[in-house]
From TrEMBL:
It comes from Streptomyces smaragdinus. SUPFAM superfamilies: Glucocorticoid receptor-like (DNA-binding domain) (SSF57716), N-terminal domain of MutM-like DNA repair proteins (SSF81624), S13-like H2TH domain (SSF46946). This is DNA-(apurinic or apyrimidinic site) lyase. Keywords: DNA damage, DNA repair, DNA-binding, Endonuclease, Glycosidase, Hydrolase, Lyase, Metal-binding, Multifunctional enzyme, Nuclease, Zinc, Zinc-finger. It is an enzyme of class 4 (lyase).
Length: 263
């Protein structure tokens, strides 16, 4: 599942291509939207909300999409060959007299009244890259369930909107807290919330995500994806777990020693 910074860039790319343009083609290839047609309407804006994309169009309508694991929006110039995948994977086509936006493998695609967007995104916590960012509220939500495993709490979009598996592992490392330790074990929750904001802000404009001081390709992340490789801080081999989990977690057993109950 993409991180909030990836979705932020996707929204910006869609906005730059579509905002202010009249839709000359609209093809929404999901059963419940088979008869929906936005042709002739002007695209007002495309904005991110956590990991959600909101394409607002003339007439008070919003096309809500979510990429989840492998969804993607591609922008093509007039006459350019579409390369995002086979035709049967296309879920949405938004064409203009210029660029065309094509959504592939979108697991979530729905049409809402713009005034009712909260039905889709109202449950989300403060958006790390959004205008509603509220660090105090984010910290309150994080601490609301102190016995919850830290990694699980960070992934919950109702706590902070925008953290995915990469930032989960990296933030646990920077907090020097085992990802399966309870939230109550975090020494400085306010600092952790601030770090989350800082990391996403630093990476929202660059596709090569960096959470370390180094710029070498093999040293851009502290622990994520580094199973068996030496920790960049202490040289202990990085571990991964738990086997069989949908989202793998990475940590350093020296920098983030598990409590007895988590070992």
């Amino acid at each position: 599942m993409p991180e909030g910074d990836t979705v932020y860039r996707a929204a910006r790319t869609l906005h730059e291509a579509l905002a202010g343009q009249v839709l000359t083609r609209c093809d929404l290839r999901v059963p419940r939207l088979a008869t929906a047609d936005l042709t002739g309407r002007v695209v007002r804006e495309v904005v991110p909300r956590g990991k959600h994309l909101l394409t607002r169009v003339e007439g008070g309508l919003t096309l809500h999409s979510h990429l989840r694991m492998d969804g993607a929006w591609h922008i093509y110039a007039d006459g350019e060959r579409w390369r995002g995948g086979p035709g049967h994977q296309i879920r949405a086509i938004l064409g203009t007299a210029g660029p065309t936006a094509v959504g592939y493998r979108l697991p979530v695609l729905e049409l809402l009244r713009t005034a009712e967007e909260d039905k889709a995104v109202g449950h989300l916590g403060p958006d790390l890259l959004g205008p509603d960012w509220d660090p105090a509220e984010a910290e309150r939500r994080l601490l609301a369930r102190p016995d919850r495993p830290l990694g699980e709490a960070l992934l919950d979009q109702r706590t902070l909107a925008g953290i995915g598996n990469v930032y989960k592992s990296e933030l646990c490392f920077l907090a020097q807290t085992h990802p399966y330790a309870p939230v109550s074990a975090v020494p400085d929750p306010a600092r952790l919330v601030g770090l989350a904001k800082k990391l996403l802000e630093a990476n929202k404009d660059r596709p090569a995500r960096i959470t370390t001081p180094g710029a070498r390709p093999d040293r851009r992340l502290w622990v994520y994806g580094r199973t068996g490789k030496p920790c960049l801080r202490c040289r202990t081999p990085v571990r991964e777990g738990e086997p069989g989990q949908d989202r793998v977690t990475y940590w350093c057993p020296t920098c983030q020693p598990p409590a007895a109950s988590d070992a």
